Amino acid sequence: MAGIPVPSLLTGLVCITAIITLTGKRRRFLTGAIIGVIVFSTDVLAGVTIHPLLRGIALCVAILFYIYTLKTILIPVLRPRIVSADTIAGGIAAYLLIGITYATGCYLIQFLVPGSFVASADALGGKPVDFPQLIYLTFITQTSCGFGDIVPTTPQARTILLFTAVTGVLYIAIMIAGIVSVYLSHHRSQHTGEP
How many CA atoms lie less than 13 Å away from 67 in the CB half-sphere? Predict the structure, then answer.
């Protein structure tokens, strides 16, 4: 598909906004902005030239950008002194970005090994699985629902969905434990007068 990739532009803007919001450090912002420009540039070039190598590079760079953004979001979320609305919003944003990152990884696998993900005839009417369906698949897997309407057919596809499921369950467990721990610590220090 030729033209400006609007979803990539929006994703890039959301990620850069997250980096700006969550860190006052100029170096982190510049690193995120540079990676974001590379993501957008390779995506535009891949869309204009329709060259498979550029599409693969664009997907790999996008995954790296998402991972960098996740790191930037998760540092303040996992180390809060108090649980605030920002902590909860950051946790939700990170959870959603984890799903998008895995969906992009699934799309890369589907790009490199076509047919890695197959939908049942009832689910998509025999149409190939594309990025929106892979987003659906990763969130269904991440939440451990697993409807079975799209299935992995290659070892690479099964492996990434395994990591998606484990990450989704562990993320929720770690976030709840962290939030409860910070809340109890804050509550205890208020009643005992300790810092």
Answer: 9
